[in-house]
Structures are given as C-alpha cells and as structure tokens.
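Figure 2 data, in text form.
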Amino acid sequence: MNNTEEVWTEYHKQLLGFISSKVSNRQMAKDILHEVFIKIHTKIHTLDDITKLKSWVYQITRNTVIDFYRTNKSIKEIPDWVDKPFEISSDEAVQEELSLCLGFLIGKLPDKYKQAIQLSEMENKTQQELAQSENISLSGAKSRVQRGRKILKDMLLECCQLEINKHNRIVEVQIRDEENCELIKNGK
C-alpha cells in the first residue's frame, strides 16, 4: 500500500469514526479527515517501513485532531487529552480500534438509524432534539435510537473480531473482512 488512494480505501471509514468520537460535529470531522489525507498524500513518501503504516496514519490523525482543537478559537472547552503528552496505553489503543470499528459500522446502518445514532451519540443531541430535527414523536426518536443501538451491537459482534480477557474487558478489536460480514452484505 504505497499510494493515498489505497490508504483512503483501507482506512477512511475507520478514521472518520475515530475523529467523530473526538469531535462532536460531523461536518468538522469530515473536514479533519480531509486534512489528514492531504497530510498523508504529501508525506507518504517519507514512510520508510510500510509495516508501520497503520500506526503512522493514526499518529497523523491524532495530531490533526489536536491541531484542530488548538487552532479553533470558537471551541469553548478543549478536552483534557489535547494538552497531555502523547502516550497511548493499551486500553486507549483498544478504545481507538473500537471507535474505528464503530465508526465504520455506523456508516453501514440504514439511514434513519444512522441519523439517530449520529445525532444522539456522536453529536450529543437529546432525543427530544432528534425528534424535532427528524419531525417525529419523542417515542419515535427513542425507538430509533434503541433500534439503532441494537443493530449496531449485532453488527459489532458479527463484523468485528473482539478479544475479551478473563475480566470481561475488550483487549483487542479488529474489523473482519467486509465481504464475510452478513449484516453488512444484507444491508441491515
């Protein structure tokens, strides 16, 4: 994988999920993703060891999100993790992988559930705000969020490889091959 198009194909959905977990506005997350790929495109020739591509891409993504918070003066509250020195624990790595997996799967949800999950879970809108924006009842909004979560959970369990330790904690997450994921193939 030595060109930007291949990196985009492999990682853009996962990275958008990760960025969306750090930035509540979906359009800002997409803008940051585009910045990430501009950086990847202009610097990919500097990557000496292709086996380190994934960590290199994640590092660029994290740094771009941090730059976003540091340069965007309109954001009133900057998350604590922005000013901490960069260290990633194994728990944080698992959380990032899980965020990437969830971001990918959210993109595969049917539109009405995808919208409900994005607004309620990623943009922190209340279910009342979701109901108003979608022009549905509050109980309808609650139902969409619950159903979206259920579909997302089923997709996660089928489409992502989860390794769970003896303490019932997720210690590793990997997206399985999309072609082998029946829920994605069937459009559920």
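Caption note: The helical segments are 4-22, 26-43, 53-71, 90-106, 111-122, 127-134, 138-159, 182-185.
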